[in-house]
Specification:
Layout lengths: L1 H26 L1 H35 L5 H18 L4 H10 L4 H18 L9
Helix pairs in contact: 1-2, 2-3, 3-4, 3-5
Length: 131
Amino acid sequence: MKKWWLLLFILVPVIEIWGIAQVSNQLGGLLTLTLLFLIVALGFYILRVYGLRAWQTVAEQLAAGQPPGFAMLDGICIFVGAVLLMIPGFFTDIVALLLLIPFTRPIFKKIIFHWLEKLMKSGRFTMIGRF
């Protein structure tokens, strides 16, 4: 598993730099830089507004005694999508938009749910709460 993370941390920046260079060749350096800054600002905005709203929904469900389940998965998708928007590059932005668009988010929610379920069944993930 650690090898995959290492490969990811090497491969993603290389792909992003290549993508930025390609866009820069088409649009020009200044326009590309402006576009990257606007996308980062959009990521901060989404995290602030929609991320906060998602976590408030989770808190409301917990206060009502309901399990937050899919509301929490929505919050995770919004958080990861917003953070990916803040990473300079266009390929991570595509993944971020897929996480943030409401009609594609259920696909990622199912993937995250099954991944967490697999971790819990294997004993590598434990929920700790206050009693």
